[in-house]
């Protein structure tokens, strides 16, 4: 296991873009991304990597390869590769969770494991968005752009392919991300690409 210590202040003063799994994910274009590190959540990397961005890519797959249904006592033996995780490509930085995915893709480099409780003081079962916001703060970023978080921007709780389904908890994940970013003095805003129905507004809400 590798701690996130080497990432401390690695991107100081930069903007981190945190990419969620909402339907607008599928409409993102390369020009929607400002310079700075990009943190993709779960399967969002599949879309983001197809854009061939010049940005550093942090691929967070906190949830791991084994369904645990939020139960801390479910044993976490790694079963990678599985449909729950995307194999990483060369040049992508892997971000896993000590509680949920400590042994996933052990040979990939660079590879870092967040101790969500020890590093950030959040419950291990927290959703990916607030954990990513605190990772951005840890890396020294002074602003965050949230894209693909449709549950927050337009009450659309659907999850983009290939997972599908929906999760009303995603809205709460953005609320938590906002709370923790602002608590740490990091500016945070949401953006949907222009061909979604409300036309590419940048929202501060
Ligand atoms: Zn695994």
Query: What's the total helix number?
Result: 5
- Tell me the Rg in angstroms: 16 Å
Return the structural class.
Answer: alpha/beta
How are the strands ordered across the major sheet?
Answer: 5-4-3-2-1-6-7-8
Q: Bin the strand percentage.
A: 15-25%
Number of domains: 1
State the helical fraction.
10-25%
What is the overall silhouette?
globular
Strand/helix succession: EEHEEEHHEHHEE
Instruction: Compute the average pLDDT.
Output: 90
**Kindly, what is the distance between the CA atoms of the first and last residues, rounded to a whole number of angstroms?**
37 Å
Largest sheet: 8 strands, mixed
Q: Regions with pLDDT < 50 over 5+ consecutive residues? A: none
Q: Let me know the number of strands.
A: 8
Which compounds are bound in this model?
A: zinc ion
Structure description:
21% of the residues lie in helices and 17% in strands. Helix 3 (128-138) runs parallel beside helix 5 (169-183). Strand 2 (38-41), helix 1 (44-50) and strand 3 (57-60) form a beta-alpha-beta unit. It is globular and about 45 Å long. It has 205 residues and is an alpha/beta fold. The chain has one domain (5-68, 75-203). The mean pLDDT is 90. The structure holds zinc ion (ZN). Zinc ion binds at residues 64-65, 78-80, 103-104.
């Amino acid at each position: 296991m590798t701690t996130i210590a080497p990432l401390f202040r690695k991107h100081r003063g930069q903007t981190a873009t945190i990419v969620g799994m909402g339907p607008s994910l599928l409409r993102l274009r390369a020009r929607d991304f400002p310079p700075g590190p990009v943190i993709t959540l779960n399967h969002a990397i599949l879309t983001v990597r197809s854009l061939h961005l010049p940005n550093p890519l942090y691929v967070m797959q906190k949830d791991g390869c084994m369904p645990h249904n939020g139960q801390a006592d479910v044993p976490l033996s790694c079963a990678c590769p599985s449909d729950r995780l995307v194999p990483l490509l060369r040049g992508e930085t892997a971000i896993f969770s000590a509680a949920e995915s400590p042994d996933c893709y052990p040979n990939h480099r660079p590879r870092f494991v967040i101790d969500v409780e020890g590093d950030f003081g959040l419950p291990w079962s927290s959703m990916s968005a607030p954990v990513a916001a605190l990772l951005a703060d840890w890396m020294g970023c002074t602003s965050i752009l949230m894209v693909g978080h449709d549950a927050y921007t337009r009450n659309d709780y659907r999850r983009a392919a290939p997972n599908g389904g929906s999760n009303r908890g995603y809205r709460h994940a953005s609320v938590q991300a906002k709370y923790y970013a602002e608590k740490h003095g990091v500016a945070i805003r949401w953006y949907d690409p222009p061909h979604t129905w409300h036309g590419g507004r940048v929202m501060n809400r």
